[in-house]
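INFO  loader      accepted 1 record
INFO  loader      residues=221
INFO  predictor   begin
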Amino acid sequence: MATIIIENYLKALYSLSQKNETVPLTDLSKELDVSAPTVNNMVKKLQEKGWVNYKKYKPIKLTKAGRLVAASVIRKHRLTEMFLVKIMGFGWEEVHDIAEQIEHIKSDSYFERMDELLGFPTTDPHGSPIPNKQGEIIKHNYKPLSEIEQNTQVTITALKDSSFELLDYLNKKNIKLGDSIRVNYIEPFDLSFNIILPDAREITMTNQACKSLLVIEKQKK
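INFO  predictor   done
INFO  writer      dumping C-alpha coordinates
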Protein backbone atom coordinates (compact mmCIF):
# COMPACT_ATOMS: atom_id res chain seq x y z
CA MET A 1 0.00 0.00 0.00
CA ALA A 2 1.29 3.45 -0.89
CA THR A 3 2.03 5.92 1.92
CA ILE A 4 1.16 9.62 1.66
CA ILE A 5 4.77 10.46 0.76
CA ILE A 6 4.87 7.79 -1.96
CA GLU A 7 1.54 8.97 -3.37
CA ASN A 8 2.87 12.53 -3.53
CA TYR A 9 5.95 11.34 -5.42
CA LEU A 10 3.87 9.36 -7.90
CA LYS A 11 1.48 12.28 -8.36
CA ALA A 12 4.38 14.65 -9.05
CA LEU A 13 5.88 12.20 -11.55
CA TYR A 14 2.51 11.87 -13.28
CA SER A 15 2.19 15.64 -13.58
CA LEU A 16 5.73 16.09 -14.92
CA SER A 17 5.32 13.20 -17.35
CA GLN A 18 2.48 15.04 -19.11
CA LYS A 19 5.16 17.19 -20.76
CA ASN A 20 7.64 14.39 -21.35
CA GLU A 21 7.19 10.67 -20.73
CA THR A 22 10.49 10.46 -18.85
CA VAL A 23 11.33 12.78 -15.95
CA PRO A 24 14.86 13.87 -14.92
CA LEU A 25 15.54 13.33 -11.22
CA THR A 26 16.45 17.02 -10.86
CA ASP A 27 13.00 18.03 -12.17
CA LEU A 28 11.30 15.81 -9.61
CA SER A 29 13.53 17.28 -6.89
CA LYS A 30 12.50 20.81 -7.85
CA GLU A 31 8.82 19.90 -8.12
CA LEU A 32 8.76 18.44 -4.60
CA ASP A 33 11.29 20.90 -3.15
CA VAL A 34 13.32 17.98 -1.81
CA SER A 35 17.07 17.35 -2.08
CA ALA A 36 18.32 15.20 -4.96
CA PRO A 37 19.79 12.48 -2.65
CA THR A 38 16.44 12.17 -0.84
CA VAL A 39 14.59 11.89 -4.15
CA ASN A 40 17.10 9.33 -5.40
CA ASN A 41 16.49 7.13 -2.34
CA MET A 42 12.72 7.34 -2.73
CA VAL A 43 12.83 6.58 -6.45
CA LYS A 44 14.77 3.39 -5.65
CA LYS A 45 11.94 2.38 -3.30
CA LEU A 46 9.37 3.13 -6.01
CA GLN A 47 11.32 0.95 -8.40
CA GLU A 48 11.36 -1.92 -5.88
CA LYS A 49 7.56 -1.72 -5.77
CA GLY A 50 7.38 -1.81 -9.57
CA TRP A 51 5.99 1.71 -9.91
CA VAL A 52 8.87 3.30 -11.85
CA ASN A 53 11.71 2.32 -14.15
CA TYR A 54 14.95 4.01 -13.17
CA LYS A 55 18.68 3.68 -13.84
CA LYS A 56 21.38 5.86 -12.33
CA TYR A 57 21.92 9.11 -14.28
CA LYS A 58 18.88 8.29 -16.46
CA PRO A 59 15.38 9.87 -16.39
CA ILE A 60 12.56 8.26 -14.41
CA LYS A 61 9.59 6.63 -16.13
CA LEU A 62 6.33 5.60 -14.48
CA THR A 63 5.32 2.00 -15.10
CA LYS A 64 1.74 1.13 -15.96
CA ALA A 65 1.13 0.16 -12.32
CA GLY A 66 2.73 3.37 -11.05
CA ARG A 67 0.69 5.48 -13.43
CA LEU A 68 -2.51 3.81 -12.23
CA VAL A 69 -1.72 4.56 -8.57
CA ALA A 70 -0.83 8.17 -9.42
CA ALA A 71 -3.99 8.64 -11.51
CA SER A 72 -6.08 7.28 -8.64
CA VAL A 73 -4.70 9.93 -6.27
CA ILE A 74 -5.30 12.66 -8.84
CA ARG A 75 -8.84 11.35 -9.41
CA LYS A 76 -9.54 11.56 -5.66
CA HIS A 77 -8.09 15.07 -5.50
CA ARG A 78 -10.08 16.45 -8.41
CA LEU A 79 -13.33 14.76 -7.35
CA THR A 80 -12.86 16.27 -3.89
CA GLU A 81 -12.29 19.75 -5.33
CA MET A 82 -15.49 19.45 -7.38
CA PHE A 83 -17.42 18.19 -4.33
CA LEU A 84 -16.18 21.06 -2.20
CA VAL A 85 -17.27 23.61 -4.83
CA LYS A 86 -20.52 22.08 -6.10
CA ILE A 87 -21.91 20.49 -2.93
CA MET A 88 -20.30 22.43 -0.09
CA GLY A 89 -20.13 25.88 -1.66
CA PHE A 90 -16.41 26.55 -1.38
CA GLY A 91 -14.77 28.98 -3.81
CA TRP A 92 -12.54 27.42 -6.48
CA GLU A 93 -9.59 29.24 -4.91
CA GLU A 94 -10.19 27.57 -1.51
CA VAL A 95 -10.24 23.87 -2.33
CA HIS A 96 -6.70 22.76 -3.24
CA ASP A 97 -5.23 22.46 0.26
CA ILE A 98 -8.31 20.63 1.59
CA ALA A 99 -8.23 18.19 -1.33
CA GLU A 100 -4.52 17.57 -0.68
CA GLN A 101 -5.54 16.06 2.66
CA ILE A 102 -8.62 14.13 1.54
CA GLU A 103 -6.96 12.57 -1.55
CA HIS A 104 -5.06 10.11 0.68
CA ILE A 105 -8.19 8.43 2.10
CA LYS A 106 -8.03 4.76 1.07
CA SER A 107 -11.76 3.97 0.90
CA ASP A 108 -12.80 3.51 -2.74
CA SER A 109 -16.49 3.51 -1.80
CA TYR A 110 -16.09 6.99 -0.27
CA PHE A 111 -15.00 8.46 -3.60
CA GLU A 112 -17.44 6.35 -5.63
CA ARG A 113 -20.26 7.87 -3.60
CA MET A 114 -18.79 11.33 -4.08
CA ASP A 115 -18.60 10.72 -7.84
CA GLU A 116 -22.24 9.57 -7.90
CA LEU A 117 -23.49 12.58 -5.92
CA LEU A 118 -21.72 14.89 -8.38
CA GLY A 119 -23.24 13.16 -11.41
CA PHE A 120 -19.96 11.62 -12.60
CA PRO A 121 -18.09 14.77 -13.66
CA THR A 122 -15.21 14.57 -16.14
CA THR A 123 -13.47 17.78 -15.03
CA ASP A 124 -12.70 19.54 -11.76
CA PRO A 125 -13.62 23.17 -10.89
CA HIS A 126 -10.57 24.41 -12.79
CA GLY A 127 -11.37 22.46 -15.96
CA SER A 128 -8.68 19.82 -15.37
CA PRO A 129 -9.75 16.32 -16.51
CA ILE A 130 -10.65 13.76 -13.83
CA PRO A 131 -9.07 10.35 -14.54
CA ASN A 132 -11.55 7.48 -14.74
CA LYS A 133 -11.23 4.35 -12.59
CA GLN A 134 -8.86 2.84 -15.16
CA GLY A 135 -6.55 5.86 -14.84
CA GLU A 136 -7.45 7.18 -18.29
CA ILE A 137 -7.82 10.87 -19.04
CA ILE A 138 -9.70 12.49 -21.90
CA LYS A 139 -7.32 14.98 -23.49
CA HIS A 140 -8.56 18.12 -25.19
CA ASN A 141 -6.83 20.37 -27.70
CA TYR A 142 -7.50 23.63 -25.92
CA LYS A 143 -5.51 26.74 -26.81
CA PRO A 144 -4.11 29.33 -24.41
CA LEU A 145 -6.00 32.61 -24.76
CA SER A 146 -2.64 34.27 -25.49
CA GLU A 147 -2.55 32.46 -28.86
CA ILE A 148 -5.95 33.75 -30.02
CA GLU A 149 -6.20 36.47 -32.65
CA GLN A 150 -8.13 39.72 -32.44
CA ASN A 151 -11.87 39.75 -33.17
CA THR A 152 -12.26 36.10 -32.14
CA GLN A 153 -15.00 34.67 -29.93
CA VAL A 154 -13.89 31.94 -27.53
CA THR A 155 -15.19 29.99 -24.53
CA ILE A 156 -13.04 29.63 -21.41
CA THR A 157 -12.84 25.89 -20.72
CA ALA A 158 -9.96 25.27 -18.32
CA LEU A 159 -6.99 26.76 -16.52
CA LYS A 160 -3.37 25.89 -17.20
CA ASP A 161 -2.43 27.14 -13.76
CA SER A 162 -4.81 26.89 -10.82
CA SER A 163 -2.69 28.80 -8.29
CA PHE A 164 -4.46 30.87 -5.65
CA GLU A 165 -3.01 34.04 -7.19
CA LEU A 166 -4.54 33.35 -10.61
CA LEU A 167 -7.90 32.28 -9.18
CA ASP A 168 -8.04 35.39 -7.01
CA TYR A 169 -7.16 37.52 -10.06
CA LEU A 170 -10.01 35.93 -12.06
CA ASN A 171 -12.44 36.34 -9.16
CA LYS A 172 -11.69 40.07 -9.01
CA LYS A 173 -12.44 40.37 -12.71
CA ASN A 174 -15.52 38.11 -12.33
CA ILE A 175 -14.27 35.62 -14.93
CA LYS A 176 -15.27 31.95 -14.71
CA LEU A 177 -15.17 28.75 -16.73
CA GLY A 178 -17.82 28.58 -19.42
CA ASP A 179 -17.72 32.32 -20.12
CA SER A 180 -17.94 33.22 -23.79
CA ILE A 181 -15.61 36.17 -24.38
CA ARG A 182 -14.40 38.18 -27.34
CA VAL A 183 -10.81 39.20 -27.96
CA ASN A 184 -11.35 42.81 -28.91
CA TYR A 185 -7.82 44.15 -29.18
CA ILE A 186 -4.24 43.01 -28.47
CA GLU A 187 -1.87 45.76 -27.33
CA PRO A 188 1.35 45.49 -29.41
CA PHE A 189 3.54 47.00 -26.69
CA ASP A 190 2.98 44.48 -23.89
CA LEU A 191 0.65 41.96 -25.62
CA SER A 192 -2.09 42.58 -23.07
CA PHE A 193 -5.60 41.63 -24.19
CA ASN A 194 -8.62 43.89 -24.30
CA ILE A 195 -11.56 41.53 -23.80
CA ILE A 196 -15.34 41.85 -23.92
CA LEU A 197 -17.07 39.70 -21.29
CA PRO A 198 -20.57 38.12 -21.47
CA ASP A 199 -22.09 41.05 -19.55
CA ALA A 200 -20.61 43.46 -22.14
CA ARG A 201 -17.93 44.68 -19.75
CA GLU A 202 -14.64 45.56 -21.40
CA ILE A 203 -11.50 44.66 -19.44
CA THR A 204 -7.75 44.39 -19.96
CA MET A 205 -5.86 41.23 -19.02
CA THR A 206 -2.12 40.72 -18.81
CA ASN A 207 -0.49 38.42 -21.33
CA GLN A 208 0.69 36.22 -18.44
CA ALA A 209 -2.89 35.68 -17.29
CA CYS A 210 -3.99 34.96 -20.86
CA LYS A 211 -1.38 32.21 -21.09
CA SER A 212 -3.10 30.48 -18.16
CA LEU A 213 -6.62 30.55 -19.63
CA LEU A 214 -7.40 27.63 -21.94
CA VAL A 215 -10.12 28.21 -24.50
CA ILE A 216 -11.91 26.81 -27.53
CA GLU A 217 -12.72 29.01 -30.50
CA LYS A 218 -16.33 29.48 -31.53
CA GLN A 219 -16.98 27.74 -34.83
CA LYS A 220 -17.45 30.21 -37.62
CA LYS A 221 -20.49 29.75 -39.78
